[in-house]
Amino acid sequence: MQGDRTDKRDTSAFNTWKDIIIPGNVDDGMTANGARLVDPLPLSKRKYLANFLGRAQGKVGRLQLIELAKQFPDKLESPELKLSGPDKLGRAEYFKHLQNAKFCLSPRGESSWTLRFYESFFVECVPVILSDQVELPFQNIVDYRQISIKWPSTRIGPELLDYLESIPDNDIEDMIAQGRKVRCLWVYAPESESCSAFTGIMWELQKKVTQFHQSTETFWLHNGSIVNRDLVEFSKWKPPLPLP
């Protein structure tokens, strides 16, 4: 699965016990060593505070971002994407749009996940998640608080831009630097690579084995709750672990 606890019909589509979240397949042009289509810009050279690159798809959050960009065109870039025809946005141009802001906004779309979140790590803008029920991959390994922001989708408006504008560049640089350490987990690289999406997937599968309710480190109580050795319910665990 990729991305969200709900599907297009807003019904449950994720089972904690048997499902895992895997990252989307990022364009090779963003990740290939020595062949990247676009290199990240220094923060001081980025034109916009934030951007949203995507179609409205009739989604409230996306429509709000498009309207917000009209109100604050100097802060939020939201160009109309041409996905077909002679004016279709090319890959290199698309990446250049992404890299030209400090923050890349990632709202819920028609599907339950979006590539924008993963792509932001390679153009080195801080992803801002605007999808309340999102499920991200490898949450027991990656501390997403260090590399991204999650903002309530019900509070999309000038308040969001004010908040982002208040964040010092030093803090943004720190988040970007932390993101560089883990972005290899979004890449479906060859087995010879020590860090890849496959590595993360294997970690997740191993975790499912060791935390299955028959595990020697798993216990249950009279009320049906499943707990660990410290009598903490699985749902109340407080990973993820800090980044090294």
Mean pLDDT: 81
Distance between the termini: 27 Å
Say how many strands there are. 7
Radius of gyration computed on alpha carbons? 19 Å
Percentage of residues assigned to helices? 25-40%
Query: Which sequence of SSEs, written as H and E, runs from N to C?
Result: HEHEHEHEEHHHEE
What is the SS-derived class? alpha/beta
The CATH homologous superfamily name of the largest domain equals Glycogen Phosphorylase B
**Broad CATH class of the largest domain:** Alpha Beta
Low-confidence stretches: 239-244
Walk me through what this model shows.
This protein has 244 residues and is an alpha/beta fold. Strand 1 (48-51), helix 2 and strand 2 form a beta-alpha-beta unit. Helices cover 28% and strands 10% of the residues. The two termini are 27 Å apart. Strands 2-1-3-4-5 form a five-stranded parallel β-sheet, sandwiched between helices.
